[in-house]
Design brief:
Blueprint (H helix, E strand, L loop, with lengths): L2 H12 L15 E5 L2 E4 L4 E4 L2 H4 L8 H13 L10 H13 L4 E7 L2 H16 L3 E5 L8 H6 L14 E4 L19 H13 L4 E6 L15 H12 L2 E5 L23 E4 L11 E6 H8 L15 H16 L2 H22 L3 E7 L2 E9 L4 E2 L11 H11 L2 E2 L1 E3 L2 E4 L7 H19 L4
Helix pairs in contact: 3-10, 4-10, 7-8, 11-13, 12-13
Length: 443
């Protein structure tokens, strides 16, 4: 038995996976990674064309980040959240500086789901209202509150929490209202207004949105959408909660995705790119007005975690954030994103199985269809966990040395922000070849 077989079978026997039928899992055993590539125990080198789970924004060899982790580990790995530390103080200040608008005070946690859990509590405590509006195609995490906000098929496997009302999506390719942009009047945004009015503005604490929906399809809103949602929230005195877990930290060619539309949220959540996935971390940042509310002696901040404000994590995030400006990674995402987008549009012209291509920066979705006229998908939401065409396409790409994530009916093309044009060429060549599998079954 090879080393790969040995460790693969060991992990399958002793470690639970995530969102999968355990008996179907037959993974590559990853050994090392550098830049935009990772290598398995057998020496096979693979181009990471999806930044693992759309989180390895910095690539896999940011030595200054690793050095910062090592230096902090020598000094202090952990302090209970009842203590203050230099890394936590400096990170809080840094996040206030780089986020848009008046966002100014953060809860520092260990992941995106935890960041959204904090946002839920903060919104409900601050407004003294209970309901939250999210969308049907969304993902906010797997913990109980976050999965309740989530609108993808994974929700059916969770208990969740009461008080969540879902809105239709800004999904122009498959408009839930059967309309076409720009003559639609942004009905998807106006429906959020209708929901709040019908639920009662005095009961709705916040509207929770990914500015570009991530794992549920890379749904890019029309330019009028986010500004209109901001207006609606202001009119009804409802908080706008911006989930930047996947789209933040340069992924879309702006430091934060919502900046594309000049919108300032009341609460922003983040994770993934905050450390480039070198260590788990999330954060929930609020406006000064919300922070001032909890500074009053009568208002208890009723949230906490053992690993909140973890000094080793905070030091890693500070070093990671420095990488974005020092090496112009946000600018590179915008530049390479134009090249990637152009190449993906060309791919659509060459493959009849590609129904739609959409994205910003280095955050793109390729939606596959059996028939362009009817838009019949290869994979439905009910088939997410079953063997399907999208999994076959990703498998074909892996055979060609390129890793591309598939979720439901979408290929998520989101390479690290350090990607170059030569890497894009390699990734596109693999996609071009792999899509022939779908073309053979498309009309």
């Amino acid at each position: 038995m090879s080393d790969s077989d040995h460790y693969r079978e060991m992990e399958k026997k002793y470690v639970y996976g995530t969102w999968r039928y355990e008996h179907t899992w037959n993974p590559m055993v990853v050994d090392t990674a550098e830049g935009v590539h990772f290598t398995d125990l057998d020496g096979k080198r693979v181009l990471d064309f999806s930044s693992q789970l759309m989180c390895s924004n910095l690539g896999h060899s940011a030595e200054e980040v690793k050095q910062a982790m090592a230096e902090q580990a020598k000094k202090l790995c952990y302090a209970a959240p009842g203590f203050a530390t230099v890394p936590a103080a400096e990170l809080g200040k840094k996040l206030a500086e780089i986020t848009p608008g008046d966002l100014s005070k953060s809860f520092l946690t260990i992941g995106g789901a935890e960041a959204n859990e904090a946002a839920i509590k903060i919104a409900r405590l601050y407004t003294r209202k209970s309901k939250l509006v999210s969308r049907y195609r969304s993902y906010h995490g797997a913990s109980s509150g976050a999965i309740a906000l989530t609108g993808d098929p994974r929700t059916q496997y969770a208990v969740g929490m009461p008080g969540v009302v879902r809105a239709p999506d800004c999904y122009c390719y498959r408009c839930p209202f059967g309309k076409e942009y720009p003559g639609c009047g942004i009905t998807c945004a106006e429906y959020v207004d209708e929901i709040i009015r019908m639920e009662g503005p005095k009961t709705v604490a916040g509207v929770v949105m990914e500015p570009i929906v991530g794992s549920n399809g890379i749904l890019v809103p029309p330019d009028e959408y986010m500004p209109r949602v901001r207006e609606i929230c202001d009119e009804h005195e409802v908080l706008l909660i911006d989930d930047e877990v996947m789209a933040g930290f340069g992924r879309t060619g702006k430091m934060f995705c919502i900046e594309h539309w000049g919108v300032e949220p009341d609460i922003m959540t983040m994770a993934k790119g905050i450390t480039g996935a070198y260590i788990p971390m999330g954060a929930t940042i609020t406006t000064r007005k919300i922070a001032d509310y909890f500074d009053r002696p009568e208002n208890l901040f009723v949230h906490g975690q053992t690993y909140a404000m973890h000094p080793l994590v905070c030091a890693t995030a500070l070093a990671a954030i420095e990488q974005y400006s020092k090496y112009n990674l946000v600018e590179n995402a915008a530049k390479m994103g134009k090249i990637l987008g152009k190449r993906l549009m060309e791919l659509k012209e060459d493959h009849k199985s590609v129904g739609d291509v959409r994205g910003k920066g280095l955050f793109w979705g390729v939606e596959l269809v059996k028939d362009r006229e009817t838009k019949e998908p290869f994979v439905t939401r009910e088939q997410k966990f079953e063997p399907n065409m999208l999994k076959r396409i990703s498998g074909a790409c892996m055979e060609l040395g390129v890793y591309v994530v598939n979720i439901i009916n979408i290929l998520l093309v989101a390479p690290p922000l350090v990607v170059g044009e030569e890497d894009i060429d390699k990734g596109m060549a693999a996609l071009d070849e792999a899509l022939k599998v779908a073309d053979r079954e498309a009309k």
